[in-house]
Amino acid sequence: MTTGLAVACRRVVHIYRAEAGDVVALAGVDLSIGPGEMLALVGPSGSGKSTLVALLAGLMRPSAGLVNIGTYDMGKLSDKEISRLRGTQIGVVVQNATRNLLPYVSLRRNIMLAQRRAARTKGVKLDDPDRVLDLVGLGGQGNAAVDTLPPGARQRAALAVGIAAGPGLLLVDEPTSQLDTGGRDEVVHALETVNAERGTTIVVVTHDGDVGARLGRAVTIRDGRVGAEGRDGQDFAVVAGDGTVQLPPQVLERFPEGTLFTVVQSDDEVSLRAYVQTPAH
Ligand SMILES: Nc1ncnc2c1ncn2[C@@H]1O[C@H](COP(=O)(O)OP(=O)(O)OP(=O)(O)O)[C@@H](O)[C@H]1O
């Protein structure tokens, strides 16, 4: 069984330098994910989810802050070290299943190609490709060509390629966006099976609230920061590393910028009381 890798982000900032001006995509993300945990990243379009995943995958370096995967500081590794990690310890499944797969060769061949780098690494014991296919519910389909599979199976084939090398961290971008309910359930079930059998830490970017709920922990990214967290069906506000807490959007709609609040504290409760000024006559 693989050992899941822990993830720790501390005050992570990412700025895209564009001709039209700099874009602050991440503005101080603090996030800890335990080894073997499953987590969904949710949030509005443009909030920074894909940027965060790209940093976890080592596809980009943070502009500031720390991104640690297991014992690795992703901001400090060389390109070569990062590329080795991605071939062995970090599995990445990008959006749109076919972009992860070679369409005209068999599923088994796709998996063997994804295992090439790990197979050259000393001490790594790889699962047989047929066993990898079993894990995602595609047992017995090793000879099928990717382009003959229906969309849900193709997405699970992409997952199989992502876990082929036995990574401790699996990053998956929007795995259910083009699937019907049945296809979505099979993909979530495949993720749950990989997590249960291998202990792999799994991070899924999704717009689908149901997927977030099924994974048990859903972190909302809002304006480049952790805006809220859902656990076991309950929503929570989160204290960031700099001591700030984002209020839910529906609260912010009622109380515009500059609204004053009194913080009311008792032994087991902290609440906010808005201070509404009476207009001067
Ligand atoms: N290569 C880039 N150059 C400049 N700005 C970028 C680049 N990539 C993303 N951005 C900007 O960074 C911010 C965060 O984008 P990101 O793609 O991480 O958000 P997202 O939450 O994944 O969105 P979506 O759900 O639409 O995929 C957005 O304002 C986006 O326009």
Automatic annotation (TrEMBL):
InterPro entries: AAA+_ATPase, ABC_transporter-like_ATP-bd, ABC_transpr_LolD-like, P-loop_NTPase. It comes from Luedemannella flava. PANTHER family: ABC TRANSPORTER RELATED (PTHR24220:SF685), IMPORT ATP-BINDING PROTEIN (PTHR24220). This is ABC transporter domain-containing protein. Residues 10-248 form the ABC transporter domain. The lineage of its organism: Bacteria, Bacillati, Actinomycetota, Actinomycetes, Micromonosporales. Keywords: ATP-binding, Nucleotide-binding. Pfam families: ABC_tran (PF00005).
